[in-house]
């Protein structure tokens, strides 16, 4: 999966109404809350078989930081 494809699919899952980039910060999103975090955890688990915990979520700042946590090697 390409990074932009991942971002677009995750944005759709989170029902974001703005365009996001690798530099978009989660804290700037109106839709980012505990429910958003749960959606993200499920999406990443289903898509990459990677488990994120609360500590991981606290450390995430941008979509790029999420990709780094998942593993850059999993993106083409």
UniProtKB/TrEMBL annotation:
Organism superkingdom: Bacteria
Signal sequence extent: none
Cross-referenced InterPro entries: ACP-like_sf (IPR036736), PP-bd_ACP (IPR009081)
UniProt xrefs under Pfam families: PP-binding
Annotated Carrier domain residues: 1-74
Protein's recorded name: Carrier domain-containing protein
């Amino acid at each position: 999966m390409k990074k932009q494809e991942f971002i677009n699919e995750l944005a759709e899952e989170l029902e974001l109404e703005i365009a996001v980039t690798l530099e978009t910060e989660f804290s700037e999103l109106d839709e980012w809350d505990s429910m958003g975090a749960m959606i993200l955890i499920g999406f990443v688990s289903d898509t990459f078989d990677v488990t994120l915990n609360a500590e991981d979520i606290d450390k995430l700042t941008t979509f790029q930081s999420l990709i780094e946590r998942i593993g850059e090697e999993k993106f083409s």
